[in-house]
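Self-study notes.
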Amino acid sequence: MANKDAAVAELTEKFQNSSAALLTEYRGLTVAQLKQLRGSIADHASYAVVKNTLSKIAANAAGISALDDHLTGPSAIAFVHGDTVAVAKALRDFAKANPLLVVKGGFFDGNYVTAEEVNKLADLESREVLLAKLAGAMKASLFGAAYLFNAPLSKTVRTVDALREKQAA
């Protein structure tokens, strides 16, 4: 009983401290394959094989009831503490190479997400790429603004130079 209470408390803490929780079914995967999957997402998430009843209790304690119907069969949860998109990509890529892994859905940004929505997340570019694109767009806007402000000044300078040349001639 104490072990179950400790497991529920640990899972509840993981649900509360995670930016997302992605639910998978791992039926038929070997220990080596699970180790490989854990390694591929280790920078951004922890991957835990969970007991469904304890996970339901822990998720409900954390205020998440949307996963209840999906906690069936051999379940494992990727508790995301980093880039959710990177974890979704890693799960999708691993599932392509190992069809026995099934992404069942998850909880992200306060809402339940379906397996299809997890795949859409995986299609997004990484946070770093999106930030780089945003920085490039901002730089281009700033360059345009600077050009716009400098254009009247340079036009005035050229006009004054042309007048000087005309008076000198």
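Second protein, same conventions, sequence then structure:
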Amino acid sequence: MAIDTEKNSYTIIFAIVMVLVVGSILAGLASGLKPLVDANKRFEKQQNILYAMGINANEGTSDVAFISTDKVEEEFTNTITKQYVIEGSKIDSLNSEAYLIDIKKEETKAKDPNYTRKLPLFKGIKDGQPIYVIPIRGKGLWDAIWGFVAVDKAMVVQGVFFDHAGETPGLGAEIKQRYFMDDFAGEHIFGDADAFKGITVAKGNADPKNERKTDNAVDAIAGATITGDGVTAMIKKDLKMYVPYFKTLK
């Protein structure tokens, strides 16, 4: 018997079957690709942490190039000697996957006064000296901004890496460019009398060569005031939480 393709019932049944078939195919693809997606996310975090430490594949004076994915895991394992998880006064130094902690989720959970936020911290060795890398996250003009700040035990910045979800190209998006990130190297987190000050992305800082390293400030990006304020805020907000730990190192 011939199927009447003109009936509404045929159209509805055909649509349902196609939805089920396509849905099953997409679900299968998502399940099959999940290990690859998870691995890429892991590699990206490792690349970013290493970049903040100054371990990268940069060749020119302005490029931003990461350790390749086929080498980054080995480099990360060899460089990062310890991964800490700080929870209040408790410090877990035996966690080998602290870098996988989602600091966005931790910040959300911390809104509950009964929850103790987990703070990941990574200790590496570069040129024979210990370097500590701190993850940070904040809000730019349009969406989330985040990064990693590498410091020595006195919380003097050794390097940074910043990224964003949707800042304006040519303006706020410039936070991930070399000329901006490189300015942070050597900047002090503490001010006078060993008081925490953070680093301000300052409009009119009048230090284009960034020669003043104890002023707790770097020059802002022209036309990107709100994004710069977001970088300032996330540095001060997140680095401050680690100050009690660093004071134990002195």
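Instructor comment on the second fold: The chain has a mean pLDDT of 89.
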